[in-house]
Every structure is written in C-alpha cells, then in structure tokens.
Amino acid sequence: MMRLLAVDTSTLSCGVAVTDGEGLLSESLFTSRQTHSRHLLGMVDETLSRSGLALGDLDGFAVTVGPGSFTGLRIGMSVVKGLAEVAGKPVVGVSTLEALARGAALAGKPIASMIDARKGEVYAALYRPDGTGGVTEVSSPEAVRPEDFSERLAGEVLCIGTGASAYGDFFRNALKEKVFFAPEYDTIRPSVVAALALEALGRGEGKDAAALTPLYLRKSDAEIALELRNASEGHG
Predict the structure, then answer these.
(1) What tens digit of pLDDT does each residue of 43-52 get?
(2) Which ranges carry the Gcp-like domain (predicted)?
(3) Are 48 and 68 in contact (CB under 8 A)?
(4) What domains are there in the chain, each with its CATH number?
(5) Handedness of CA 181, 99, 6, 167 (dihedral sign)
(6) How far apart are CA 8 and CA 235, in angstroms?
(7) Nearest CA to 105 among 125, 135, 126, 64?
(8) What order do you get walking across the sheet with 24-31 strand by strand?
(9) Cβ pair 221, 69 in contact under 8 A
(10) Distance (Å, rounded) from C-alpha 208 to C-alpha 135?
(11) pTM
(12) How many CB atoms lie under 10 A from the CB of residue 69?
C-alpha cells in the first residue's frame, strides 16, 4: 500500500486528503477568502488524525503546483515541502487543470478546465476523457482571454472550474447549445490530486522536496511592480 497525503491551495478552496492507495481514508475541504496559511496545518493534522495515520506512516506527498493563485500555491507547496523533508519521502507536483478535468472524466464530454486568473483572463486547458476514468491533454495550460479560448472549442464541451463560473454567461452566449456546465466539478478535490499522484509515483516520477517547482503561466503583480520600478530607476 502507498500511503499518501495530498494538498490543494490553488484557489479559494483549501483541501487535504489521505489515501492508502486502495481507497480514500480522509478528506477535508474548506473555502475561505482568508489566507490558507491560517488553517492549512490544522487541516493536515485533522485529516491525518481521522485517517488513523501519523506523518511517519506516509510514503509520499502530493501538492497542486499551478496554475492558480500565486499566494495560495506558495503556501501549499511550502507546507508540503516541509512535511516531505521531515519525513524524507518523495513529492509529486500535480497540475490544477488536470486535477479539475480528472474529477469530471466520467461525464464523458471534452472538458475545458478553467481557473479564474483575474485581469480578464483564465488559466485554461482542454482535455479529453480516455474512457477509463482518466483524461488526455488536448491543449497545453495557458493564461488566455475567455474570448480567445472559446474560439478553440469545437463541438460539445463541459466547462468547469472557477473560470467557468466567473465567465459562464460569456461562454453560454458564445457557444450556445454546445456548452455544458457542472458546478459540482468546479472545485479541485484533494482526493483526485492524490489519485493522480499515486499514478505518478507508480511511474517513478516522485521528486525530492527541493526539486518541486510551481507552474506559473504569467508574472505575479509583485514581479511586474519590481520590473516597473527597476525600469523607472534605470531611466532616472
């Protein structure tokens, strides 16, 4: 059995799950506009306790690495890296968009996974169910305007995620009867993150905690502000 703890902090939802490789032992989900740093460690402790496991019993860890909230991703990755280093166990980084799509794979339609990126954009990728409960990536994750992404969607498509809920009216008007929504799939389930990570570990794709890197599709506001300040000082 492969005992694994999975974490997602990429959106307003914060999730933790523990699995033993054969089934889900415990799962916690919490949605808040407060920073996830205020409750993530407590959720980890509670979820482990309900599963009947301790940190030392785990064989690996998983965390969503993006795209998503810059702050949220940093919090989740920092906590999981710390836990993995203490336990001396491997870590798997999981795509948020793939986790969303995997959760909706049994719906049987092409899936447009979208996370609200603000500033009039979504983080998006298109997936196709593989018929076995998994998904195959059709288009790579990108930061894109809904108007541009909609032009790439041909035929029926299931739109899910916070991007789908934020721009639902636009996609309904643009795609008419070809678009479908399923709000029950809009939240990333940490149990799905765990399932994807277990498959990756089975393929030997676990990493040392130090090697884990985020998937950022655009620069953060802080990086943009720093570049503008440096450019301004350079012209001064």
Answers:
(1) 999 999 999 9
(2) 33-225
(3) no
(4) 4-95+188-220 (3.30.420.40), 98-185 (3.30.420.40)
(5) negative
(6) 42
(7) 135
(8) 24-31, 13-19, 4-8, 60-66, 91-95
(9) no
(10) 26
(11) 0.92
(12) 23
Which residue bears the tokens 């350079």? 234
Beta strands at 142-144 and 121-129: parallel, antiparallel or unpaired:
antiparallel
Give buried/exposed letters for 106-130 (b at 16+ CB in 10 A, else e): ebebbbbbbbbbeeebbbbbbbebe
Say if residue 224's pLDDT is above 60.
no
Token code pair at residue 125: 């990728």
Q: For residues 8 and 63, is the Cβ–Cβ distance under 8 A?
A: yes
Assigned token pair, 227:
């570049």
- Per residue in 118-135, pLDDT (tens digit) is 999 999 999 999 999 999
> Exposure string (b/e) for 168-190, b if CB count within 10 Å is 16 or more?
eeebeebbeeebbeeeebbbbbb
Strand 24-31, strand 179-181: pairing: unpaired
